[in-house]
Sequence to fold (586 residues):
Amino acid sequence: MVGLRKEVMEERTLRWSQTFIPTLKEDPAEAQVPSHRLMVRAGLVRQLVAGAYTYLPLGFRALQKAIRIVREEMDRAGALEILMPAIHPAELWQQTGRFADYGDTLMKVRDRKGALLVLGPTHEEVITDLVRHHINSYRQLPVIFYQIQTKFRDEPRPRFGVLRTREFLMKDAYSFDVDVTHLNQSYDRMYQAYCRIFDRCGLKYVVVEAESGPIGGEASHEFMVLADTGEDALVECERCRYAANLERAEIGARSASVPGPSDSPLRKVHTPGRTTIEQVSAFLQCLPQQMIKTLIYLADGAPVAVLVRGDHEVNEHKLRRALGAARLELADADTIARVTAAPVGFAGPIGLPVKLYADRAVMLVTDGVSGANEADYHLVGVQPGRDFQPDWIGDLRIACDGDACPRCVGALRLRRGIEIGHVFKLGTKYSARLGAHYLDEKGQEHPMVMGCYGIGINRILAALIETSHDDQGIIWSVSLAPYQVLVLPLNVANAELMQTAERIYRELEQQGIEVLLDDRDARAGFKFHDADLLGLPLRVVVGEKALQRGEVELKWRHHRASFTVPVEQAARRAAEEIRRALEHLM
Fold:
């Protein structure tokens, strides 16, 4: 009886008429990107509330495939799987300082006793708390733990379907080592595991240098799928393949100076009410590139002046590193007035009583324009080095398209991407604050050196669809597709045709191929439309005319052309095609 029940259940999940695939003809009104539109239209997901989705049978099968690939490669890399709670005591987050750092993004609840809890967006605190209670000797290190767990972040604007949600599925891993040398080894193991994971998923990705953000740490890399609709900006060198996200991207020292005389006299001009780069450049009929933008920041509470060219923006991550500051923020209007003796919009580098930090592009400006540190006045003819000398000069700005590569003679090109994975060298940020120490061979105590490694499981599916689709629908990779083969009989009322389709379906199943049989009594055009929308990799079409010739049609979803094979060879040939495609991904 148990065996019969198992057989019936397997059959039900493989026949279209007996599973649940609610396809839609029209795009959902709220969908802005292809992956969102197609995941809803193909019946993979449905939204419950903003930022939270139900995965329907096909979507869940694809999600489970991504999970299996991730799990296999993490196990292969020697990581140990655990499962940690989604609810964390707020005290742990307060001890590391991230309770304040995350702000409103951190979801908070109180239990019936009034204890403050948070819904975990990540698990550095929890894993460090676990390790500090159970590992205390260098003999127990190194160790890497990982989990596949639901996470929560109260995104202010959840959008783009499963790409930016409030509830999501993540694989997060954490390494613990005795020193940085051993951390580098663990980091490399995880880095290589990530490459294998995304290769097996059929994703085309780039690895970029990245900032660690609220996670903290000393170095990190992001795995990005290039897509015009991606939310993340990055630069990539067209020559040497250097790549980095905008927060981290370095800029080469080569550049051309702005044309103009270098011996123009310094003059003060009246610029009433003109406070922005656009307003001043229009009023003075100069280029934004000739303007020197002066911003007052508070670095650990102390004011400093930061100079960038008028068409550039300060990179606060670079600035924080240059200043060695733990806290960095733009100064308020009162502080600006106290430092510059002028209201906001009229600050300039000449005569300021604070240290000047200048982006190196500023030093190439000639016949420049800056604020005069006086209400309604600017200076023209400003010459860096002659009229002011910065205390520090370096790379302080956000990279732009066409900037010089920092590694070669090439140029940086601006790209958009979808982050699918991120690896961090955390160092001792969490182990030192939470007391995760070990004793070395001499009995001396040291904080463990940590790494952190995350993959957005949901994003794997969305990123694939975002970059692998056409006007008709999804184009799945063989490794992630809910089913590998679709057997499509065109006329279910034709007994011979259906018997042939059933036979091919059973033979494929016996060979271990994941196959879906479209047994619906519907028009051929309707079934072809749904087949293209779902995008299963290989289609076996059983039609009356071809069957009269003893043939069936095989067609790859990513190819325009189809080909015919004898009926008796159909299952074997389809299975061979699928296996070759899988081998290519491995």
